[in-house]
Amino acid sequence: MSLPIEDYALIGDTQTAALVSTRGSIDWLCLPRFDSGACFAALLGDEDNGCWTMAPAGPHRTTRRSYRGNTLILETEFTTDDGCVRVVDFMPLRNEHPDLVRRVEGVRGRVRMRSRLTVRFDYGDVIPWLRRDGRRLCLAAGPDIVLVDADVDFDCAAPSRPLAEFDVAEGDTVDFHLACLRPREPEPEPVDVDRLLSATERWWREWADPCRYQGPHRDAVVRSLITLKALTYEPSGGIVAAPTTSLPEQIGGVRNWDYRYCWIRDATLSLLSLLKAGYEDEAKAWREWLVRAVAGDPAQMRLMYGIEGERRLEEVELDWLAGYDGSRPVRVGNHAASQWQLDVYGELMDALHQARSEGIPPDDAAWQVQRTLMDFLESGWREPDNGIWEMRGPPRHFTHSKVMAWTAADRAVKAVERFGQDGPADRWRRLRREIADDVLTRGYDAERGAFTQSYGSQLLDASLLMIPYVGFLPATDERMRGTVAAIERELCTDGFVLRYSMGEDSEEVDGLPTGEGAFLPCSFWLADNYVQQGRVEEGRALFERLLGVRNDVGLLAEEYDPRAGRLLGNFPQALSHLAVVDTAFNLQAADGPLRSRAESGDGGGAG
Questions:
Q1: What pLDDT was estimated at residue 602?
Q2: Cα separation, 263 vs 231, whole angstroms
Q3: Mean pLDDT, residues 229-244
Q4: Chain centroid to CA 295: how far?
Q5: Closest CA to 523 of 498, 544, 502
Q6: Shared-domain flag, residues 321 and 398
Q7: How many C-alpha atoms does 312 have within 13 Å on its Cβ side?
Q8: Domain CATH code at residue 103
Q9: 233 belongs to a structural domain
Q10: Backbone angles phi and psi of 75, in degrees to 5
Q11: Over 70: is that where the pLDDT of 595 sits?
Q12: I want to staple 35 with a disulfide (CB 3.0 to 4.6 A). Which of 182, 210, 236, 260 is the partner?
């Protein structure tokens, strides 16, 4: 069986990331970018698909791990009958090429260690050719080259699985360094690990320290912000939804997707969380990425892009991988990139509105993009779409999508009224009113006393908990109270919220077999609604319960199975961590008036 998802921790260099297990094995690493082929893919298969183990050679009694302060430097301590060792894993901020460092420190006694290096390129399919030069190993196949320097010798009798065994006594340090090279690139000199470690620690501490949040959950907020930063592709400013692909939403199921891309929605919400916490540089970089990515015909706007704004993300299945815990197929690429989602227009307009509200200087190119999108949206909002959850069934008039179209019109009006942008505000006000009337008439079921997933549907959808966020209606409106109550009755499992109603009717909507875990961001959204309804203690209790399902190093996946008590879905998930930040800030503000994202003193809600 695969290790539980919560047994993994993240390290990264803001261009790619690795997952390290509690057993000291790196089971996932894509080089040189988040969306590159994996050279360690045991996470989705087995050891023969690539991993790098580093652990005591014999049995050990306990394992304890943590991040070094507010950094992405992971420390794992193994205690054996003979002593204790610490494995320090980190990826230095990139200079010329990707680096990964593993340092073994003797803490107490004397421990025999074993490290096995199994490199497999192209997601575990290609066995590289091995060349040895002293204590340097070069593993290469086609365009892929990995160098490994070590303070100890590797036994290469099995060239596809080099093995090192060595003793570490108290006070000893043994270093390993992996570098990824391009073809024909000169091999680098051995690195100074002490210098890299010091620089990496300093960089992360300096990045984390300015966080504006000073409430009781600061550790959780800072860890979530560090995770969001780690999921940002530094050269472009794009933010990936997660660094993994195909971690299942149901063990053994088919809901296994590639999340190593930039969803407009997830990136926008991540940006808002970073802005709240005071990280304006990330906001500026994201805006530049956004303008480049969506430039062109607004009818061709994608719901997701590659990390440099790529549009073609063809989905293929990797049949040589057994899948996490037998969950197949394993997919790379994402067919949903070709879908049309109306809600992303609202999220984009909202993000740029928030950037202006936080004092980010206006950008003429960004406003021209917004003007062009609004021209399209004036008629495009009437079309059915695939919805926030990327439904693979026929397009529908999803209520959340229409609310986000209203949000786009609302933010366009505010851009003129509050920030002096040039645009037809009167026309956009009429559009805003027209969409609001449509949603309140067709998206609300008066008999149920709740908003429904789509026009004419009886199904519920937790995305409707976002209605107060964007200012369409206050959380205290009776229609929202009724919607929250319906979600509590029908979508909550032991306090955790499912994304939408599942059954025979839902299979027609999403085109997939039923079954998945509770969606953690939706659970945080419910806590936010409690806070905005004045049910602050209920919101705080749910928030703290959700924090309780983080793993031992403070990370969350996309979903959670409350019955099995385990995380599900891609990991760590940006949407879950930005929800931690949002709810913490909302609770901090609970003693004063809690403003929606739309609030500007001039109304504009749907009424």
A1: 39
A2: 12
A3: 95
A4: 24
A5: 498
A6: yes
A7: 0
A8: 2.70.98.50
A9: yes
A10: -120, 125
A11: no
A12: 260
Helix (H, G, I), strand (E, B) or coil at 349: helix
pLDDT tops 60 at residue 59: yes
The pLDDT score that the predictor gives to residue 346 is: 94
- Could you tell me which residues are beta bridge partners of residue 148? 137, 178
Cross-strand pairs, 67: 74
Mark whether 167 and 239 lie in a shared domain. no
Write down which residue in 196, 227, 253 finishes a domain.
196
Asked whether residue 601 carries a pLDDT value surpassing 50, the answer given is no
How many domains is the chain built from?
Answer: 2
Residue 604 lies in a domain: no
- Lowest model confidence (mean pLDDT) among 244-253, 338-347, 357-366, 439-448: 357-366
Residue 504: per-residue pLDDT: 66
For residue 154, give the amino acid letter: F
Residue 549: CB partners within 8 Å, gap ≥ 6? Answer: 520, 556, 560, 567
Among 126-140, 460-474, 581-595, the minimum mean pLDDT is found in 581-595
Domain range for 14: 5-196
Q: What is the CATH number of the domain that holds 375?
A: 1.50.10.10
pLDDT exceeds cutoff 60 at 547: yes
Same domain for 340 and 312, yes or no, is yes
Q: Is the dihedral of CA 61, 66, 68, 74 positive or negative?
A: positive
Residue 593 has pLDDT above 60, yes or no: no
User: In angstroms, rounded to a whole number, what is the distance separating the alpha carbons of residues 464 and 303?
Assistant: 19
Please state which of the ranges 191-200, 289-298, 378-387, 528-537 shows the lowest mean pLDDT: 289-298
> Same domain, yes or no, for 498 and 412?
yes
Q: Is 594 within a domain?
A: no
Last residue of one domain, picked from the residues 168, 196, 224: 196
**Six token digits for residue 315:** 């989905």
- Indicate whether 242 and 385 sit together in one domain: yes
Residue 475 covered by a domain? yes
Q: What is the mean pLDDT of residues 315-342?
A: 94
How many whole angstroms separate alpha carbon 316 and alpha carbon 313? 9
Cβ-proximal residues to 493 (8 Å cutoff; 6+ apart), any chain? 518, 562, 563
Omega before residue 243 within 30° of 0, cis:
no
CA distance 572 to 231: 9
Same domain, 267 and 166: no
Residue 599: what pLDDT? Answer: 52
Least confident span in 121-130, 401-410, 449-458, 487-496: 487-496
Q: What six digits make up the tokens of 459? A: 């199904």
Among residues 235, 233, 238, 213, the alpha carbon closest in space to that of 224 is found at 213
Pair 128, 273 in one domain: no
442 and 323 together in one domain: yes
CA distance 45 to 123: 10
Q: Is 559 helix (H, G, I), strand (E, B) or coil?
A: strand
